[in-house]
Amino acid sequence: MLRVSYASAAAPGRANEDYVLAGPSWVVVLDGATPAPGVEPGCRHGVPWLVRALAAALAPGMDGGEPLPEVLSAAIAATVKAHDGACDLGNPNSPSATVALARRRGDLLEYLVLCDSAVVLWRRDGRVTVVRDDRLDRLPGGRPYSLELVASLRNRPGGFWVASTCPEAAGQALAGAVPVAGLRGAALFTDGVTRLADWYGRTWESLAAGAAEPENLLAEVREQERARGVPHGKPHDDATAVWMSFPPW
User: Fold this and answer.
1) Rounded distance, CA 45 to CA 75, Å?
2) pLDDT grade, residue 163 (50/70/90)?
3) How far apart are the first and last CA of the chain?
4) Residue 27: Cβ within 10 Å count
5) pTM for the full predicted model
6) C-alpha to C-alpha distance for 238 and 109, rounded to whole angstroms
């Protein structure tokens, strides 16, 4: 048995490009990358279409038994086909999304992270394990990155990997499995929520403990953004927090 609760909020004044989909034993969390002003993505569909199409393509595989990297690779390939030849998929600025997946299979919780969303495993002894792909934070030269640098290193060795037009990116994801018996639960966060740990002093332990009431985390993010500002990037971002628990815990 799996119990899931989540909250998701758009950046003020914008459409929400995060997306959550859940099944009987799994959760998918996607964070679409908002294109920079003036950048031509070569795609007529846009980011909201991409996250919806990718989530729909992921669902059949999440219900099956294939390893999560293979599930994601097949879903990216199916989404590429769904463009139906109408887009320039060779454009390095094609719409993209980060991915966080979690699936219970028997006595194990399987997980996958691609790019800067996070899966946080909260163990029964109070410890947390943070699964996070930090390659986007380690590009040459440090932040702020130029648009040209990001485009040249997206889905490239030595750069960073996202779900876009390259099914091989799935093989670069961080994936693993842990026994369910040792978990209180698991949280999945987009980077709009992990700001609380990265910038505003929250511990990962407190984020995991607060994830059971995800709407409170989102309210706290907005309060901190308004009160303290941001060191780089957008003043507000789409924010999604998901909590998975495994009754009877």
Assistant:
1) 17
2) very high
3) 11
4) 24
5) 0.95
6) 26
